[in-house]
Amino acid sequence: MGIVVALVIGALLPLQALINARLGALTHGALYASFVSFLVGTCLLGALLLATRTPLLPAQSLAALPAWIWLGGAIGAAFVFAATLLVPTLGAGAMICLVVLGQVLASLALDHFGVLGAQRPADAVRIFGALLVIVGAALVVRPWQTG
Q: Where, by residue number, does the polypeptide cross the bilayer (predicted)?
């Protein structure tokens, strides 16, 4: 079930980027469209929190949490803004391929060093898989072609 959900969400990401890019083109640009996207998502998640009766505040003080914990939202905002900005020039396919490549390379490094999770060494098979992603991204993006 988790694999199917991940595939569906992955399939929706280029559509989200295209929708946000169109919203930006029809309104005040990529930053405005990214804000609207996050606002709609925040409202939906807030409604879901209320519907599931999830406490809005954690059991511990927010000040007790490490400062880096807030980076998740900042990274999400950076992704939505960058995707909204880049899709019109790169295209959805190239942008998503480059994002996936960045995710694979960073994930291998983060897993290898056990950053915020269990350590999973970057063995030869995983590195070969990353090389295949590099080749796949290059074939979709085709940086050797102009225009």
A: 31-51, 63-86, 92-113, 125-144
Query: What does the radius of gyration of the chain's CA atoms come to, in whole angstroms?
Result: 18
Close Cβ partners of 125 (under 8 Å, ≥ 6 residues apart): none
Q: Is residue 115, in this structure, part of any structural domain at all?
A: yes
Total domains present in the chain: 1
Residue 78 has pLDDT above 80, yes or no: yes
Give the range among 31-35, 63-67, 122-126 with minimum mean pLDDT.
Answer: 63-67
Alpha-carbon span 22 to 88, nearest angstrom: 9
Domain span at residue 78 reads 2-57+74-141
The letter for the amino acid at 66 is: P
pLDDT tens for residues 112-140? 999 999 999 999 999 999 999 999 999 99
